[in-house]
Amino acid sequence: MDEIKPMLDAALVEVGNASTVSDLDQLEIGYLGRKGEISQLLRSIGKLPMEERPRYGSLINEAKERLAAEIERRRNVLKAAEHLSRLETERLDVTLPGKPVSRGRLHPLTQTAERIIEVLSGLGFEFVDGPELEDYEHNFKALNYPDDHPAMDEQMSFYIDDTHLLRTQTTALQGRVMAKRKPPFRIATIGRCFRYEAVDATHHHTFHQVDVFMVDEGVSMADLKGTLATFARAMFGDEVTVRFRPDFFPFVEPGVDYAIRWHDRWLELGGAGLIHPNILESFDIDSEKYTGFAFGLGIERIPMIQYGINDLRYFLDNDLRFLRQF
Amino acid sequence: MRIPVEWLKEFVNTEADAASIAETLTMAGLEVEETEQSELGSVLNIKVTPNRGDCLSVIGVARELAAAECLELRLSSPPPQPSPLTGEGANESNLVQIEAAELCPRYVGRVLEGVRIQPSPEWMQKRLLASGMRPINNVVDVTNYVMLESGQPLHAFNLNRLSEERIIVRLAQPGEKMTALDGTECALSETMLVIADAEKPVAIAGVMGGAYTEVTESTVRILLESAHFDPVSVRRTANRLALRTEASYRFERVVSREGVGAAADRACELLLKTGAAQKVTRTADVYPNPASKRSISVRMSRTGALLGYEVNKGAAETALRSLGFIIEAGEEVLNCTVPHWRSDVTRDVDIVEEIGRVLGYQRIPDRLPGGAATPGRRSDLQRITAEIRNILTGCGLQEVVCHTLQAPSIMDIEFWGGGRLPVRNALSSELSQLRISLAPGLTAAAQRNARRGESPLAFFEIGRVFRMEGESIAEKVHIGGLVAGPINRDWWQRANSDAGFYEIKGIVELLLERLGLKDIEWASFNKGEALRYCLHPGRSSEIRSTNDRLGWVGETPLDLIEEIGGIRHRIGLFELELEMIQSATESQVAAKTFIPPSPYPAVTRDLAPRVPIDRPYSDLEAAVRQAGVTFLEGCEPREVFTGDPLKPGIKSVTLSLTFRHPARTLTDDEVQAAVTRIREALEQRCGAIFPT
């Protein structure tokens, strides 16, 4: 019985001195394991007189519990320290670059087109696609261009044969739609256009346009201005205002050129107006009952304004140093 | 056109400076592109829209300025002398004869004698110079001066050189020729209107005079022409002869018939006043069918409905009068007589535009359209291409936009056949045909970026291509992709390897799977086909789905990569025709139905058949599937092995088979029986041998 206390004291010292979890595991086995010192003491109780056994037994159990608790406490301390030291050995240089994950980008023209589609869809416009290789009829004649009119000087195109040309304006879709649909309708189209022009920073033989038009009862210049203003604010910011200036396009009357006020400058964006009654009538639309508006603009113009791109040629050059910026 | 502000102020009494006049005119529809300085002060460079021929003159622009500033237009006072001749020589019938009246409805001729050629007065020269015209002599300068002032082109002939001293306006005869004033030899055709004397053409009507009858220092008698020529005829002739002049520019944009006489009067007045000529001796004004006045009535309610705000009737009347309209106002209607110089005004909307324009478009309010709501939506094409873009950017490909107009290229892969479409009027040989394939553009993009040292070279494009299909033109939407070198950037821990056939095929597989296509067949091209398409014969494949030829995928042969130059990697390319994908999708994609995931465990077994090396994997998979094991869930190739210890010409393909039953747990016996059946199928169908 006298040996219990010294043994416990010695064990506690040893536990306190254990410096690793595995040392501690060895101690635990040595004292508390099936063949450990405390287990042997318990087994030796049988040799004691009957009346001493309970007291002796409870002393041993107290010592056992005390030791087990102390081992557990010590183990937690050591584990925490070992965990910390392991974390330390796993330390990385967080300033090195991460493993590259590749994801392509959309071309800035697509990004702009997507934004336009989103805004105009929200205003109730339905997108329709037309051919890039158009016929003379739709590109000019259906749009109220008289034959051999000087208005075509700005619309020189590339011809494949006598009747087929690369469209000079997405407006060419208007006749295709009006031949099939009855008002009311709100239509928009986005696509590639071509002009017979030498290339420089502000001119290109290949460019992209959005064309927007609607026909309904009572459509006026005010509806046009409001729609344009809403569109322009969605694209360029809430403070934008729209200005009309008289201009001429055979397919609209009145015809205007519209500009937006952006960062204290007037920026001309494109042409607009009320759809010419000659056009409505040529598709059997009653031009007294129905009126319509149309407007168009160059897609390239938008990122050029937004990002300060100073040369139209970048858009078809596919230079990664350009494309990566958007 | 260039207009000196000083000249403009002769007709409008305004205090405004050049900048504010420029602003006013621009907002009235006459865009002042820039203001230049000259000896006469500021000169406005005005872009006149093609419908406003009347504004190709100082007076026309002055009228717009006066209307916009609510000032009066002061036409020259006193007005030019009316026809300065009566009695003998006046309205002489044989001086001018018109044989093509529909192309020349009016011709005024004046003969002036006592001509002394010398420089024109300094004030006239200054105005001409400031307007961008070179002074020549006192006769020619007067014709140009009056043209700039009134918009009516004039011409002076050396009368002594006109055979029989008379003018015939007629179509050219076959084979006729004429040397123009600028020295151009013009071969005339029967559709061209000419001014002729008794024998020969002496001018191309409305375009340019002839050298033979030119007014020179020795000229003593002239015939002055002021006429109206058909705009379309002048335009066609000028285009055919490639002669663009100040005169043809104006005639194309319609010069008023009614102003023809006044311009002749004004020129005679100036010629006499400046001493260029002594007297008018003969005159003619052939004008068989004078134009009738055009009247248009416009309702105020319609005006308001179109402009979007209620327009005051009085203000509308004032606006129109300031532009020269004569108005008779009713209760609700304005009956407008259109001034003769406004050939562009033909309908009520044209009058509405004039009212709106003069009152100012800033009055138009912002409003969103009412009416029936319409569902806004993207087009079907936009919907599917957005999805494709999303998938391909996710695969690491950068979107590019390449030219439609291209030079013919060895990379024009004519997989869908058809003929190429050359451009009839190409700007250059680099832009001489419409693209038939996206491959050349993608390759060029890769090449240019490779030369700049950029990477990764991984691109895609969605765009239109063109080909002839029999007699008709086919315009198709294609999806093309290119990968050269690793898609991922090299990293400090590891360099990436080149992408090759399997990488690009993996991208196409993912794309087609995400678009809902199953049962894709991949089949090598035969050698001839592959070489015709400029693809690597051993590393290229046609992509089919049932009967649809969706497209192709393949590597570019190494010798071709060398020929292209600039790219030091293998190039993998693919091209798909969207229409084909849509057609295959429609026939394949039934409405999606949900299949509940099986709660029972899967069992996996590997089989490693040995087969001849040229036996395609697709045969093995087909044999596995045809073995008839209903609970076979998947079959994947794990490894393809050749070489020692295998015999030459033999490969071992490790197949990983997954079995799962939807309703119960499979027993070992069932799985073993299934594996045996599959093994037998491989032996029978593919001649597979299994190592023991």
Q: Which features does this protein show?
A:
heterodimer, A: 326 residues, alpha+beta, BirA Bifunctional Protein, domain 2, 2 domains, 7-stranded mixed beta sheet, two-stranded antiparallel ribbon, 9 strands, B: 692 residues, Phenylalanyl-tRNA Synthetase, Chain B, domain 1, Phenylalanyl-tRNA Synthetase, Chain B, domain 3
Explained architecture:
The complex is a heterodimer of chains A (326) and B (692). Chain A has helices at residues 4-17, 21-32, 37-43, 53-89, 108-122, 136-139, 173-178, 221-236, 277-282, 301-307, 320-323; strands at residues 126-127, 133-135, 164-166, 185-194, 206-217, 241-246, 252-262, 265-275, 290-298. Chain A is α+β, with helices and mostly antiparallel strands and 326 residues long. Chain A folds into two domains: 4-89; 108-323, BirA Bifunctional Protein, domain 2 (2-Layer Sandwich), CATH 3.30.930. In chain A, strand 7 and strand 8 form a beta hairpin. In chain A, helix 1 (4-17) packs parallel to helix 4 (53-89) and helix 2 (21-32) packs antiparallel against helix 4 (53-89). With 692 residues, chain B is of the alpha+beta class. In chain B, 30% of the residues lie in helices and 25% in strands. In chain B, the strands form eight sheets. Chain B has a seven-stranded mixed sheet. Chain B has a five-stranded mixed sheet with strand order 4-7-10-11-12. In chain B, a hairpin with a 2-residue loop joins strand 22 (457-469) and strand 23 (472-484). At the A-B interface, helix 5, strand 1, strand 4, strand 5 and helix 8 of A face helix 2, helix 6, helix 9, helix 11 and helix 12 of B.
Shape of chain A: rod-shaped
Low-pLDDT regions of chain A:
none
Uncertain runs of chain B are: none
Any guess at the CATH architecture of the largest domain in chain A? 2-Layer Sandwich
Classify the beta-strand content of chain B into a percent band.
25-35%
Structural class of chain B: alpha+beta
What is the domain tally of chain A?
2
CATH superfamily of the largest domain in chain A: Bira Bifunctional Protein, Domain 2
Number of helices, where a helix is a run of at least 4 consecutive DSSP H or I residues of chain A:
11
Largest sheet of chain B: 7 strands, mixed
Quickly give the structural class of chain A: alpha+beta
Radius of gyration of chain A, in angstroms, nearest whole number: 42 Å
Reading off the top of the CATH hierarchy, the class of the largest domain in chain A is best stated as Alpha Beta
Largest interface: A-B, 91 and 92 residues
* CATH-defined fold name of the largest domain in chain B: BirA Bifunctional Protein, domain 2
Tell me the total number of β-strands of chain A: 9
